[in-house]
Amino acid sequence: MQVAEAFKHAFLKQMLLGFQASVVSPKSMGFQERKSAIKLSADVAMAVARGTRKWTRGLIAGLSKEHQNRSFLQLILGEQYERLMKPCHSSWKIPRCKKIVRRSLRVCCRRKKKKNQVGVLARTLVAKRTQELKILVPGGESMDGFSLLDETLDYVVSLRAQADLMQSLLTTIEASKLRSHSKGTLPERKASYVGN
Amino acid sequence: MSSRRARSRQSTSSSRITDEQINDLVSKLQAVLPEAHIRGAERVSAAKVLQETCNYIRSLHREVDDLSERLTELLATTEASSAQAAIIRSLLM
């Protein structure tokens, strides 16, 4: 599963805003502060690029809980900030499929549990991992069963794209640095296009 | 007791999410995990998929943290204008 081209573009655009905002801030920012700003930009970029999902809302909500993040968030999100911060108006719940969690919890209440020992273990493990997932996926605490799995899949794909895009940014910036350094010392090359 | 059973029976019949849909999601998750290349189409248990998913998410978080650090270091020694030019170039590619 891959993210759309539109995701990549939206991500890079939003990262650009984040970079600009990091530079505008006082140069006296320490390394950790600047790193936090970059990381914040990357997370915001990922959420904005993906659009409206439960996990993107959860992510933005989580990020803006930190007081020091808020002004930076408003700066790089602009008018999108208000929209993304609006509480989820849909109180309508997807018919909860508690099958996974419930099966695993309904452990010993049934007869013939000895026959089901292997099944019981598997179901308990699933319940345990489901709990872990709720912590790892932004906004996961309020998700359940099918919804949690669905959001997890989407989140994992987006995270992978985020990492890949950040890596390609690194590569591109490094390459452009090398080029601008070499220009001064070597005879100018003919349109060395950094393409594929 | 009977009310609990009645409730569970009720929610199962009114739930529009089928086992098939869940299995479909689990197999899609399996397909995005890094081990998918090695495993091919061999099905793995849901518990294992979830466990590996948790591990994968944690490792992706670490990867992004590391990349943030490297980007911060790089930007510290790069002209703002050329960093921006590089991003714009990426956008155009």
UniProtKB/TrEMBL annotation, chain A:
It comes from Ensete ventricosum (Abyssinian banana). It comes from the Eukaryota. Keywords: Transcription, Transcription regulation. It holds the Pfam family IBH1_N. One of its GO terms (biological process) is regulation of DNA-templated transcription. This is IBH1-like N-terminal domain-containing protein. Residues 5-67 form the IBH1-like N-terminal domain. The lineage of its organism: Eukaryota, Viridiplantae, Streptophyta, Embryophyta, Tracheophyta.
Automatic annotation (TrEMBL), chain B:
InterPro entries: bHLH_dom, HLH_DNA-bd_sf, PRE. It holds the Pfam family bHLH_ILI. Belongs to the bHLH protein family. Keywords: Growth regulation, Transcription, Transcription regulation. GO terms for molecular function: protein dimerization activity. The keyword Transcription regulation applies. Coiled coil: none annotated. This is BHLH domain-containing protein. GO terms for biological process: regulation of DNA-templated transcription; regulation of growth. Residues 6-60 form the BHLH domain.
